[in-house]
């Protein structure tokens, strides 16, 4: 292995350095957007007839809303650096606690959706690309377009009505059956991992069983992107110079397609996964609402409904950070897999 | 919903697009030629998409004439519509829990969707193009900041962005439609920004801009033209896909309850959300029709966008494989042997002596194989 | 840089004549390769006949788009979908045109080799050099052990001047010249009897080019490999080829001993091509007006006639015969055969405005 | 005294609840002891009962931190209060207390029962009671119910068994307040900080149940508290609150048998469908009494609602029967007083004054005030995000009725709840819809909050005569004696019409066949007594 670890290290350092201004801009955007929003965060969320003006002022002072915006902005940045996303006005919880409590479910759902999309999208995309312009290819492309065109909430409702209500194959909603997961200690706060940790396979299966419909719904949102991506990549790869070169060396067609075509066509998919994270998190808002999945998206809607700006700001900040960090990680993973990326 | 971020037609280098000098009509013809030439799946997608979209636009534009009743009508001739009536009779698509006529709601919903979509596309086009031009033209710190901000917006979960934006703009005059349009606008500005900025940058560096500048033409004008010709190439795809997304986002906002209220306008997402209880109560029509409308409208625009992308993006254009059948050789090759070498560079008309093996007048007789084996030992099976 | 077994490069083994009696390794007869297109069939290669003997190098020259690469690939059966091949390519007692895709695949590598123009993109970026060799050797010699593979691969690489220490590297870690040598090593590790080198040096700088040419020269001397060298560069042909074939618009217009052809070009196209070559002695820039014809609708008669300064009436009407000259050169032209044409036919063709394809 | 938070709690769509019972069998497997197989008429006290609800907004598990029904539902079952309301009764009855009585109108004294312990076995003394009230006031959490204790001056524990409450002003409703979440007795021995909320999502109380597990928005699991000393006799071993985010899902859950009882949050359409299908669905729909109130408030300083004639004309036109029928499928009952039927001292004041809807009478009223010329333009506000989406339908119906009289031109406006509250308090809306969900079933809780000096919604209505009557009623510790006072209050309200009561919600539950006790606990107190619900 003559891989030069030096260049990899340099690449990672560069990529991390690139993420920093992006995070900064992101935080600024979130701050500006939520401070431009109408209404005073404190009085809006407490709605407070019964609250005296003094009490409101006190709360405002406690939350720091009485200080100049620029000072608040500084505090906000300083807090985020310490992973302090504020305290919800409507539920009195630390937003970081909310994230800890609900984040696991969203991670589970998003991962499930991603896995579903990959499991479906990659084979379909590969076949479609391999047999370009065949009936299967046409079907695959139309399938991708239709799944892309059907909004998550329509698909979710349909899936729920058909597979849960009418056929009864899957549970209606939620992450587990009642009571079943009560004894699982929260080690990672991702229920399914916690259950594996304590070897409670009944809970693991129960979560998986509950996960299928929402994950498929969310996965369908992005499966089109994968089909498309894989198909296009494979077509381009199979037209590629090194594929022709391999053929010229008399490599068997099957090996050409699999070793030179598929493998190379799949590399960019990793990058696309990075791009899909934002989409998955956005889609999870609607999916979590439809399937009553106890994640951050559903929580965010509740915070929005109660105009809990502090909590919304905290959650949105966190989600944005996640997106930036994941896309950074994906780039780094990509560099590990594809030696060219490192330059 | 999502942007399909993969391989939209990116503006190519200067050679990729029509030269700015070309007359507008020629450019248009060039732009549309591929559409007319499209074939296969691209053609199917394009024309199906155009048909669906056209249907949608016609319904939206002529909603007042098409819809049997107003979007908030609950009675006709003093007689109240029945509640949750199944389709048939006076109400082809049935009625809702609010005594609305579903058909009318769906038809008027098309108009709402179109209004929001057009506003959102126009806003984001305008702002995105303006910022892209500024950024690409002036460069420097303005460019760097704008790029960073746009990249950040682009990376953001778009639905979250739209929801937050919907809150930001909830007091904007013009009501729910403008609010929704603005919320969606925020999401799509970065896409136009990117395209226009890239075009502007490459235009700035293009040699003919240098030349034009040297000749005293205003670079701004040149860039404007150049960018325009690029924009006109890539924007249709982005715009149609964005239009699809706009409908989906609007419906998503409505579905979550952050959208337009029923007395303000008919909106599919809201209607669908309100129809969920009906769905469980065997009243399929209140959810089905708005649901189908949402999917169809999005599908129509997506198909147009995908079809356009296929057509305009040559690398993805379907190669129609035409198999060739090679006809038998009509006239076999004649081989003649000459005895003497011609002059090194023979002048015209000057010919070396020829030892003619075949009568040129009767080429048919000069069948293959008849050519005498040459001294050089050339193969015998000529012309076989 | 020298090749490991670098020998004196100036030595040129005997001219073609001494080998003319040897049976050709590969013989093409009336080979035609047509593509389908929107505008009708494109006759990219349209009735080509040539022989290559063991250890012989045939240079294939001509402008871009005249069918050289198609010819090279057509021989190996490496054509895109929709292409049709007709005629005969006789190799080891078989007609390659009639073989199935599978049979062709088995021949490619151990019998037929192809070296490409652009070495930068011809290696799979995700595979180490070693994996490329393993794959090729495994495919054709399934019973080789890993060590044997390694030995053979390293031998081939060493032959190209690539040190064994780079065996496990990824393609992107090599320069263009090194990659081309790896490509050649890959093509040769299976000792093919016949190799097509499709502009192997075009993308490389001059020093590297010389190296590669040297390597190819060594190759045919050491292994008796028959080589078709496709190139734009007439200098290379003069230096490295025994025989040369000049292609124009899907036809071979002239072929013969390289030195003969260069010393005394017969076909007006060859003459024009040579005039256009820039060398130290060049006094003015020559070029051939116009561009090669659209092969979907080639001109009638001689395909070069619209651009031919010596075109006669007959040239526009009837395809010229192949004229076998005493020095062994074959020239497809009406000029040397006045007896076969009428006086009227030999009248100069009226110079039309050269109908050039649009710049677009 | 405003219980804004309470209004929030009231939230649920004017609706309903469904309950039912069923052995929800196989899926719960080993973890859920089911009552299946037992045909005995007696409830299976070893059963696990699962109650599904959309009332999931539990603000806090600390009684000092929440003033809403979902939270209080948990408190009522896990904490003891000095007094409680037995099912079907509106009279506070001793619970943790042996007995409570007025020493004088400003001093209330309670004696604790013997041998009370918290679920961890530690004794419950008067110090704990004093601690609970002191900390409630000290924390004064904006989301908490401390405002209910405004009349309380101080709490004292003269001995281990005695607690005394000294009042700043006379407050006959104190016993009622002691039955609510504000009266929950927490342990003073460390688990509850004295000046801030407990945040670990655990509960230490002395009520009939202990909280085993709580997952916000998902479920709360309870089991019977072995150390509990009180009147409740648990009909089950475990009780689960399963929270649903969508009413339609809850409805499907009861139909499939995923839950034993579905309660609150179902839409009128859901209820109708459940009723239609209940015959062979393995469940039945149960109607209980309901005192949830929905009404329109007029800002008497904002045109055109500043004209009494306009308010009266609206009251004269509105057809409550039609609202109940058209919008709510009769899942709600028309109400003609701010004190709903089922609560002491209720009179049909508005019906007595206005009679049946009559546009001619309304026109006469307007004409008399010189407003009869052209239709009166009025903007009617509602919020779609607090009381369920069906609120929109209700206000559309109102608009239709008002415009149908030819006397009004109505513009409907809506905004999301938080903005809505801010704006109506700022007097921006002439007429706006609100809902009320009682803290306790005492008529004072339906009058003082709205009518006393502008009420909690600050509609500027300030009638000295009414203020005086309210103060008087609050001093009347014999609630029977206060009835004439309330009759007078209601009469004046109907005359001035600063608020327009529209309907009161029934409590509706759906329960799987075999579930017992659900109907009994659905009384005007809105307390779900877990212990009463069993499975056969």
UniProtKB/TrEMBL annotation, chain A:
It comes from the Bacteria. Residues 103-334 form the ABC transmembrane type-1 domain. Gene3D superfamilies: MetI-like. It is a multi-pass membrane protein. It is found in: Cell membrane. InterPro entries: BPD_transp_1_N, MetI-like, MetI-like_sf. Keywords: Cell membrane, Membrane, Transmembrane, Transmembrane helix, Transport. The chain crosses the membrane at residues 12-34, 105-127, 139-163, 207-230, 265-286, 315-337. The keyword Transmembrane helix applies. One of its GO terms (biological process) is transmembrane transport. One of its GO terms (cellular component) is plasma membrane. Belongs to the binding-protein-dependent transport system permease family. PANTHER family: DIPEPTIDE TRANSPORT SYSTEM PERMEASE PROTEIN DPPB-RELATED. This is ABC transporter permease.
TrEMBL record, chain B:
The chain crosses the membrane at residues 44-67, 116-138, 145-169, 175-193, 283-312. CDD domains: TM_PBP2 (cd06261). GO terms for biological process: transmembrane transport. Residues 346-384 are annotated as: Disordered. GO terms for cellular component: plasma membrane. This is ABC transporter permease. It comes from the Bacteria. The lineage of its organism: Bacteria, Bacillati, Actinomycetota, Actinomycetes, Kitasatosporales. Keywords: Cell membrane, Membrane, Transmembrane, Transmembrane helix, Transport. Residues 110-305 form the ABC transmembrane type-1 domain. It is a multi-pass membrane protein. Belongs to the binding-protein-dependent transport system permease family. It is found in: Cell membrane.
UniProtKB/TrEMBL annotation, chain C:
GO terms for cellular component: plasma membrane. Pfam families: ABC_tran (PF00005), oligo_HPY (PF08352). It is found in: Cell membrane. SMART domains: AAA (SM00382). It is a peripheral membrane protein. One of its GO terms (molecular function) is ATP hydrolysis activity. CDD domains: ABC_NikE_OppD_transporters. NCBIfam families: oligo_HPY. This is ABC transporter ATP-binding protein. It comes from Yinghuangia soli.
Automatic annotation (TrEMBL), chain D:
This is ABC transporter substrate-binding protein. It comes from Yinghuangia soli. Residues 1-22 form the signal peptide. Keywords: Signal, Transport. GO terms for molecular function: peptide transmembrane transporter activity. The keyword Signal applies. Residues 92-456 form the Solute-binding protein family domain. It comes from the Bacteria. GO terms for biological process: peptide transport. The keyword Signal applies. It is found in: Cell envelope. InterPro entries: Peptide/Ni-bd, SBP_5, SBP_5_dom. Belongs to the bacterial solute-binding protein 5 family. Pfam families: SBP_bac_5. GO terms for cellular component: ATP-binding cassette (ABC) transporter complex; cell envelope; periplasmic space.
